[in-house]
Amino acid sequence: MLSENWGSVMNASQRPAKADPNKVAKIAILMTDGEFNLSYFDAATVGEVYNDAGKEPTRTAAKTLCTAMRAKGIEIFTIGFDLNEEIARATLQNCASPDTAKIKHFYQAANGTELNQAFQDIAHNIESLALTK
């Protein structure tokens, strides 16, 4: 629950705070195999969820979502797990927030050890972000 737009489904004390770069860090971690083979974004029926049957390709929907999240001040870390396509890698790199001199936002993992390391690095980066803000 990063968006305050969904706050009405929660009690007032539990609602997401508005983004404020000096006080509130909003961070998303997106992990995928990059296949984008389900079309939940605009599917009207369960049958339309599979095989990219929706009106908008899922990769396009993912790009749109990432752009909208960054525009709302959400910092995005992405992890590609066992990526098989260069286009999947490019999509996740473009989805991630831009790297800084100290913080990497896109990771690739081919196995459990690399996946664990990616999450450890992200946790360290988030901790660093919290301490500097």
From TrEMBL:
Residues 1-122 form the VWFA domain. It comes from the Bacteria. Pfam families: VWA (PF00092). InterPro entries: VWF_A, vWFA_dom_sf. Gene3D superfamilies: von Willebrand factor, type A domain. Coiled coil: none annotated. This is VWFA domain-containing protein.
